[in-house]
Amino acid sequence: MIYDMEMQKTFYASYAEKVEKARKKLGRAMTLAEKILYAHLYDENTVAAFRRGEEYVNFRPDRVAMQDATAQMALLQFMNAGKSVSAVPATVHCDHLIQAYKGMEEDLPSACTTNKEVYDFLKSVASKYGIGFWKPGAGIIHQVVLENYAFPGGMMVGTDSHTPNAGGLGMIAIGVGGADAVDVMTGMEWELKMPKLIGVKLTGALNGWASPKDVILKLAGILTVKGGTNAIIEYFGEGTRSLSATGKATICNMGAEVGATTSVFPYDEEMKRYLCATGREDIAELAEANAADLRADAEVAQQPEKYYDRLIEIDLSALEPYVNGPFTPDAACPVSEFAARVKKEGFPQKMEVGLIGSCTNSSYQDLSRAASVARQVKAKGLKMQASLIINPGSEQVYCTAQRDGMIEDLKSIGGVVMTNACGPCIGQWKRVTDDPLRANSIVTSFNRNFAKRADGNPNTHAFIASPEMAVAFAIAGDLCFNPLTDTLKNEKGEEVRLDPPIGETLPLKGFTVDDNGYVAPSADGGKVEVTIQPDSQRLQKLEPFAAWNGEDFMELPLLIKTQGKCTTDHISMAGPWLRFRGHLENISDNMLMGAVNAFNGKTNCVWNQLTGEYEAVSAVAKQYKAKGMGSIVVAEENYGEGSSREHAAMEPRFLNVRVILAKSFARIHETNLKKQGMLALTFADKNDYDKVREHDRVSILGLQRFAPGKPLHAVLTHEDGTTETFEVLHTYNEMQINWFKAGSALNTFLSSTYKCNFLGADNKQ
Fold first, then answer.
1. Residue 558 and residue 411 share a domain
2. Count of Cβ atoms closer than 10 Å to residue 313 Cβ
3. 3-class SS of residue 624
4. Number of folded domains in the chain?
5. Do 557 and 492 share a structural domain?
């Protein structure tokens, strides 16, 4: 089945014309990313040479995708927008709330019972507003989107940071917060800072143990977690053609870990094969007709330095497997050097669990290669030394892998197959262990490895590798094992070596699925009622945030000065807190509980200026709010790295935090703060961070003259009565300043809608 065929026909009918119009206006050749961006301008008459990394541009994406954890807040906001149907095709995918514990046979029914209220809510909202609904167990959002919705040259936003997965099919797919999704679903212009372009030239072809995952693991080491901020990574070169569509998707997916706006590959035969294999031959035909504009112009490949802001080259033929971590995805290490690093750093050498899956690596190809390694356990007389957990990407992948014997191959070595869902990757892992705080090591095929993310244990050293490497490590049970060079002793005492993995990129017999899990919306959404019980602990209707009062922020108490990495996991933890993603008041209890207090090195322990005592961050914020006081958070680099979860912005807003002052922000989080009417500021001089003291009160001056490009000023009032003043910067444009003044972006939309409706009614009279 092809979903939204008419939309795609319409898109391709005008795509080449829009690209040519932009090319003539720019007067030069264009990269692939530029072609897709310019073809999606909100107003096609606004074509101009937009300044990359500086100028905000309005776009009109083709579709929206939401996962169940973020969809709750997105749809609660959409319900307040006054629309009867989504302006663009949209889907909801139930993949985040399913806990991985005993296996799919028990875990899925348990999740359906535990989360029934939320699933019923999402299904009813989807049915009412013309949104497709994918049931629990249908699969991980990004794999399902790749199988059913992604198309070359399209543009999509998704309420998950790994939305760029669709770049594996040549789509510009961008992770956003729920408020951004609401913009698109209401038909409003969607604003994005024109991204810079990082060109990555791929040469050669992968061989042996090397996999597509290793491309992005190596690149993460080059770029670091913030090296791709406000940039699109565009892959080019003959090496791209050697990678499968799902391999390309893996690379694009984990581009989120370097902060990239998105990543994209040019259209090629592998994409065509995947489209046809997933029943979308008609889309492949349309893409073929537009193939010349689904890749960069020839001049770009000839002189890439003229068209990209940064160039990186990776030789696939020379690439070896990488193992990244622990605690950050950019700690990249080739496997040939990993054993020495393990010993030097004192990491727990025993490897206890291998985990395969996540949105990054859960395709048929991934399972195929992993299964080829698994089969060698029996064939070579080996014994597993660690546990193995598998999360297939979709029901279609699972059913096909089961038919082809791959699931049994993995089960035969003790592998436990979990539900087709995110599971351990986003903290939904009920791990059975003798000590939840014991130092230990695991190897995953996931994308993130922040402390406490997988199992809640701050001492779990999580390393990221390919699925096949995760299986190899699980067989050996030893982080110092290198399958490329080392041997293992089998039950006969023989030294044996694992053979390199092999596998099919696509199933030779085609895909199969009994029930893909899709539920179409109601033909008459107006008759569908959405109810939220007033005493619900899972769901809560949203009340608009208050507008700015027109005054400077004076002597805000310092809530917390965070030290080191402060991701969205630190700001709003996942795991058990996922159950409150639709209840802003309840989930606000976790606000910044994982952030490290710079003054005492502790988490969830900050000084209360009202009592003089140390208390939990949210508890202190609540007390300030009850007294009518705002507060301020001070942070270091790349604040808000990680997930797109807008709860990390909405919780401080709800608890009356007025300002986040950081050395720098991650892209999605900075936008989320702006959307919710928060003030996101950066130090003009990063050394001023050191001036902030624990008992300070902080004033932000100049808000009456708040304007694009115009700095504001921060005044620290110390406990001894002395003051220090320094400049602080912002990236707000006129529209975003209006969001701040109105109290949120949604408030401005509601205000304009009200005015339009009022004027319309008045005119009719």
1. no
2. 12
3. helix
4. 2
5. no
Q: Between β-strands 63-67 and 155-158, what pairing exists: parallel, antiparallel or unpaired?
A: parallel
Domain end point (choices 496, 516, 538): 496
Has this prediction a pTM greater than 0.90?
A: yes
Prior bond of 334 cis (ω within 30°): no
* Helix (H/G/I), strand (E/B), else coil: 682: strand
Among 457, 474, 496, the domain boundary falls at 496
Whose tokens are 């320094």? That residue is 726
Is 752's pLDDT higher than 90?
no
CATH number at residue 482: 3.30.499.10
Task: Report the run of H or E that residue 371 belongs to, with start and end.
Answer: helix 364-379
Average pLDDT over residues 204-216: 98
Tens-digit pLDDT profile for residues 716-742: 999 999 999 999 999 999 999 999 999
Strand pairing of 155-158 and 614-615? unpaired
User: Is the residue at 70 inside a domain?
Assistant: no
What's the whole-number average pLDDT of the chain? 96
Neighbours of 216 (CB within 10 A): 30
Q: Please, which pLDDT band fits residue 576 given cuts at 50, 70 and 90?
A: confident
Do 490 and 559 lie in one domain? The reply is no
Q: Which two tokens stand for residue 75?
A: 């749809």
Handedness of CA 63, 69, 70, 72 (dihedral sign): positive
Same domain, 481 and 627: no
CATH number at residue 633: 3.20.19.10
- Known catalytic residues are 95-96, 160, 448, 643, 645
**What is the residue range of 561's domain?**
553-750
The alpha-helical segments, DSSP class H, found in 224-280 are 245-253, 269-277
Instruction: Quick: pLDDT tens for 449-474.
Output: 999 999 999 999 999 999 999 999 99
